[in-house]
Amino acid sequence: MSERVLSAVGVGVDLDGVTVLDGVNIEVRSGEVLCLVGPNGAGKSTLLGVLSGERRSTRGTVTLGDRELRRIPPGELARLRSVLTQENTVSFPFRVVEIVAMGRAPWARTVEGRDDVRAVSDAMDAADIRHLARRRYTALSGGERARVSLARVLAQAAPIVFLDEPTASLDLRHQEDVMRIARRLAGEGRAVVVVLHDLSLASAYADRLALIVEGRLEAIGAPVDVLSAQRIERVYGLPVELHLVGGRPVVVPTRSP
Amino acid sequence: MKHTRAFALTAGLAVLLVGGVILSSMTGQLAVGPTEVVGSVLRSVGIPNSWAPGDPIVESTLWIVRFPRIAMALMVGAALAVAGAVMQAIFGNPLAEPGVVGVSAGSALGAAIAIVLGVTALGSGSIAIFAFVGGLGATLLVYFVSRANGRTEVVTLLLTGIAVNAFAGAGLASMLFIADSGSREQIVFWQLGSLNGSRWTEVAIVASVAAVGTAAAIVLGRRFDLLALGERNARHLGVNVEYLRVGSIVLVALLTGVAVAFVGIIAFVGLVVPHVIRMAIGPAHRALIIGSAVGGGVLLVFSDLLARTVVTGADLPIGLLTSLVGGPFFFFLLFRQRRRSGGWA
User: The complex's ipTM?
Assistant: First the structure.
């Protein structure tokens, strides 16, 4: 059931004359969680931007289905993919339930628009924010805001879901919750692309890991194939130990006592 | 709860609106009874009644002097308040206002140029047309100068607005300098704003622009909501942000330009009204824009009533009154926002 929905060929991005991404070939498949990992500044978020159609690549092409991504008008694109950005500030004090309902905007005046109420309600349950429904977004904590934004993205109900560091401001339990949601979305046949810093978390939940280093795709494949102690040490410049938990690598830095 | 509040606000504004209109119609050098006002209006729409005034002087005072002035107050108030709400939506900042960004100053400069040069080529509406062109020019200048890489940074935009205001202020000062004393008085009137001498033909122009502009703003309301999530998120939800911005800028220039063209600069309406409405019913833009249109009308009807009654026998500039109240309100908002977030980016 895993089938290619999005593919990037020879993608490169130059910013102010500096090459931040180069020669990346990657495909995104439905029913699969793909995690993008790599050191700070490696180009993970840039790649996510290119794949989601937010950023134009300097070189290469991205195709969604059988069409070039850049030719799809914004309204239609919003029904094909949703994006959770890192920054989620809201300029006016909207209520949480209003924010989540905004995720349904792309479906206005479509047949699917009938499901608005249920989609919003389900998304709020999944992100564990039902108790916040009447609160003002501007009065929430960072972690609560992150979950509300996630709920908004879930309500959008797009077949491709991009999450840019969705666990950054969350506690342990909510981090696991988010990744479980990602798995569940993949189980429903959606394609999920997640940028993560935590290698162990990525390893535990990803079908495939893509390791990005200095703007290039260093390795891609099952976590157990991509993550090796030598490779991580070389890429991150830090000695690590790998432990297998449930068949998946857990990365622990080697710490001298 | 939300609906009850919106309902209470609508009812409250409606009462204030009708009350303000009747009160303002009654007050002046020639006192008119409330029943006479209601009767006269009823008779004009084809309902004969015993309340209608028999005295032709009362009738002409109402229909030639007071009603057009009140209608102008309603329309200008609505146009300015909606312009403010739209501007705050596209800049994502509750402090954005046509006056702040330089639209009003641009319009006033256009009007001053027309007055000093004695432009009459475009008929009696020459000054109005110049005012509108000046406002549009200022808005477009602010917009395009503050654009970089296809985006508009909020801070840059507001700073550019300050520069435009300074430039238009200098232009206005030089117009005052070279003007003869008659033109000088006219320009000063323009800077302070007044509803005195409004005519039905002018009211009709302002009313049509205000109606079309408000309707357009209501249609765009949902998109303004999404814009509150930030430009990137709005794009991800399918909004064509650049088109929305350009369309909104033209909308703001139209609404502000037409208001300034006929009554001069009336500042802070676009700041105070949307803010109060937002506090009452929340930030969702469709309701906010409708509420602002009505609220702006109410505010100006009462401000104008005050302007022509507070000093016996004198007609105070209405812009002076709104700035007197609006200035401290702006300070209050600045202070509150600074305390909350240590300034803003």
Answer: 0.91
